[in-house]
Amino acid sequence: MDRQSFVSNDAHQYNGARPGLAEWFATPQGQHVLDWERGQFDNATEDVFGYRAVQVGVPGIDFLRANRIPFRFTLALEQGATLAADPLQLPLANQSVDLVALPHALESTADPHLVLREAERVLIPEGQLVISGFNPLSLWRLRQLFEEKGAGAPWDERFIGLLRLKDWLHLLGFELNGGRFGCYAPPFENPLWLSRLAFMEKAGARWWPIMGGVYVVRAVKRVHGMRLIAPAWRQERARRRALAALPQRNGHAASRSRTTLDIGSKTRRLDGDA
Q: Regarding predicted confidence, which is higher, 30 or 239?
């Protein structure tokens, strides 16, 4: 069966620029970003366990390589994806996935908040969400301002600030539990200049940490108000145990001693009367 038969011709392809991004990752500049991002995805996903994990977008690059969930798959409208589908309408059941990875999946869509809502819908409670994006508060955004329209990925994409992303995640019930900025060097295309300015990675992380060109964050889906409901017979047993009298050895000993003293006093009084 033809893979494309599941997707209509007029379907809104949220990631129409994704092939451009995949090609850009093959350049020295893109490889510099990709190496850092994959390291951060490895750290963010290696301790996430469950049954299913999905990577949305960029199917040609495995961002879940360090994860040990047995069933991992990619979802996109690009060639090479395990599941051909639109991330704006994920064909997955509610609360069926333990981990969702969104490598730059929010930046080229007209409705990134809808993509986040779909990710929240398919995640189980306490499920993990890992997102990467370009930071508008950086030298990368400055270069984007001087690029012509149609320059290709990532310069024609919509950079989303971390503060805005945190607000969106908070509204959907997510709680950030990790994240980091990186790629502080200017976005040069020459690999020689990138290697010469490698010292800026450590310097930037220390002196201007929020001005990295790229960020990777991890969030956990919280479902407030959940509590375990025990069976009625367990609650009844717990209530009976709470009302049961506890034996006290000291108390019995004290009562016996008081009884002996009372008997002795009566004996002495009888002797006196005699």
A: 30
Q: Is there a single domain that holds both residue 160 and residue 255?
A: no
Tally of domains within the chain: 2
Residue 228 lies in a domain: no
Identify residue 21 by its one-letter amino acid code. Answer: L
Greatest extent of the chain over all pairs of C-alpha atoms, in Å:
124
Nearest by Cα to 169 from 235, 215, 227: 215
Helices 18-25/28-45 angle, 10° precision: 100
> Do 259 and 206 share a structural domain?
no
Q: What predicted TM-score, i.e. pTM, was given to this entire model?
A: 0.75
Q: Which residue has the tokens 């069926």?
A: 96
In the chain, % of residues over pLDDT 70: 75
CA distance between the termini of the chain:
117
Residue 109 contacts residue 76 (beta carbons within 8 Å): no
Rounded to whole angstroms, how far apart are CA atoms 135 and 210?
A: 9
**Residue 181: domain span:** 3-221
75: Cβ contacts below 8 Å, ≥ 6 apart: 54, 55, 56, 57, 59, 81, 82, 83, 85, 87, 90
Q: What are phi and psi of 242, to 5 degrees?
A: -70, -30
For the record, the structure tokens of 18 come out as 């994704």
- Whether residue 148 is found in the same domain as residue 42: yes
Residues contacting 156, CB < 8 A, separation 6+: 17, 20, 147, 149, 150
pLDDT of residue 232: 64
Contacts 24+ apart (CB under 8 A), 39-42: 40/132, 40/180, 40/182, 40/216, 41/66, 41/101, 41/103, 41/130, 41/132, 41/216, 42/66
* Rounded Cα–Cα distance for residues 79 and 147 (Å): 28
